[in-house]
Specification:
339 residues, mainly beta, AttH-like fold, 2 domains, twelve-stranded antiparallel sheet, eight-stranded antiparallel beta barrel, 1 helix
């Protein structure tokens, strides 16, 4: 892939990953201070991501704690949006703190409460979790239990995973209560660097889906140059470089994705409206589907990079429906080129 001057730092989501599954270790729920002994970089990171949705009310969320261990800082908090919110501070619940001492959460991911009253408890590693949040001033609250539907799906690097979860609980937005009874795919990463340098690349999309018949998927991929993406003519990318990593779960069994074809349609704010996606797994099975965004907001990872977070209805080409995420990583070079 021709990335131009991307600062020279390798970023896990833009690095080609082997198309094979890694190994799950329950110990990886906890923070990994051992990496500080061999990696002094300030880009060393460790993340913990949960979420929940109420699709019938167009509610979607990000519950995120992002640690920079060598800086001894975390950014952490909650973002919950109802409908499509193009202005980030205008989302319905927004309490995400950028600079929190890692000591403020006890230097742990197992059981902690942030200064913003976001609480996470790992009840049983890889099996059950609980998240909650309380803001009495605005009457914003949630209390959600996240229970494993399947074991974690681990990337072949063995420092990143996703997991399909059943979500149950309640969310209150400005005094109005909604029942949470859905699904979500969490992720967890550790032990690698995330450099903040500018990147001359098109958007890379982290996508998940949980379907009515038990089929689930994850794929991290760029749009396919052969499908006339919006960035065509601005960036050069071989078709073979589109996929970063992916997996499917069919009849309860995991399989790695071997190739993808993808095209994203954007609204006037460059939020994804729809994604056409084709996955081929290691067993040669092909899955085709299309998404429709019904709830969205923007997570600004850095000043030069943003991620529209899109709660999306999915429909496979056989008519089976699903729900999941379309998270589109966009750096400045892309936004300048197409805007």
């Amino acid at each position: 892939m021709a990335e131009g001057n991307n600062g020279g730092g390798e970023f896990y989501i833009t690095r080609k990953v082997e198309t094979a599954m890694g190994t799950w270790d329950p110990a990886n729920e906890e923070m990994h201070p051992e990496y500080r002994k061999t990696n002094p970089s300030t880009d060393l990171n460790e993340t913990q991501y949960f979420g929940f949705s109420v699709p019938e009310a167009r509610i979607h969320s990000v519950l995120y704690t992002w640690a920079h261990p060598n800086l001894e800082l975390v950014s952490t908090g909650v973002m919950v949006a109802q409908g499509i919110r193009h202005i980030t501070p205008a989302i319905d619940i927004h309490d995400y703190r950028a600079y929190v001492p890692i000591s403020a959460i006890g230097s742990t991911y197992m059981d902690y409460t942030t200064p913003g009253n976001y609480h996470v408890e790992v009840i049983e590693p890889g099996v059950k979790f609980r998240t909650s949040y309380h803001d009495d001033v605005r009457d914003n609250h949630f209390d959600v239990t996240h229970t494993a539907m399947f074991p974690p799906c681990v990337w072949s690097s063995n420092v990143h995973l996703e997991q399909v979860l059943k979500t149950d609980g309640e969310v209150t937005i400005r005094g109005k209560r909604y029942k949470v009874d859905g699904t979500h795919v969490r992720d967890r990463s550790w032990g690698e660097n995330r450099p903040e340098e500018p990147r001359a690349i098109p958007p890379v999309t982290w996508m998940t889906g949980v379907f009515e018949d038990g089929f689930c998927f994850h794929a991290t991929a760029f749009d396919s140059p052969s499908m006339d993406p919006v960035w065509k003519g601005h960036f050069d990318m071989p078709e073979s470089d589109v996929l970063r990593f992916g997996w499917v779960i069919v009849d309860g069994e995991q399989a790695a994705v071997k190739s993808t074809r993808k095209r994203t349609t954007y609204d006037s704010h460059f939020f994804p409206k729809a994604v056409e996606l084709e996955l081929v797994d290691e067993r040669g099975r092909t899955f085709r589907m299309k998404s429709e965004t019904i709830a969205a907001f923007c997570f600004n990872a850095w000043h030069n990079c943003r991620w529209p977070i899109c709660g999306s209805n999915w429909v496979r080409d056989d008519g089976v429906k699903g729900w999941g995420d379309v998270q589109d990583g966009q750096w400045s070079d892309f936004l300048l080129a197409v805007s």
